[in-house]
Amino acid sequence: xxxxIPEQAVPCSVNxxxxxxxxxxxxxxxxxxQAPLRQTANAYLCRLxxxxxxxxxxxxxxxxxxxxxxxxxxxxxxxxxxxxxxxxVAAKFEYDGKTYLARVRYPALTATGKKVRVxxxxxxxxxxxxxxxxGYWITIGELLAxxxxxxxxxxxxxxxxxxxxxxxxxxxxxxxxxxxxRKYDP
Length: 186
What we know:
Layout: H1 23-33, H2 35-67, E1 76-85, E2 88-95, E3 98-103, E4 115-120, E5 128-130, H3 140-161, H4 166-177
């Protein structure tokens, strides 16, 4: 069952009067023409952000693994108890029949009498520290300094790449349109 509609009832197009071209329309036309260039720049910026984040995690993680004192990989670990010693909070532990005190970097995070893990060097048990995420592995100063460095480097990279020369953008677009030749194609 099909219904036919007379041709007079269906308008094909409506001719609206066009306003005269102005500078804003010309600028608009230019910005529409440059839209692929902006998309390319935005894609590049997204890749740059991802690379910066990955590099930050890898570099900061490597820094943390190999700069802790006492060294996590070469040191011994034991259990200690939080004590208050002369207005200072420390972790008390025993090694070789002697009692030692390990430093506690963030005493507000631990309560007196609490059982904690302690890392110490066997050759020098006085060089000991409470083994916690905040205090042994990550300190506030290191975290803030690394974030400031990353922010500065990202700002520099963004300022360099955010306003490229139009010729460079055109070259990048043309490179994407050219067919890639394989090494051994005739």
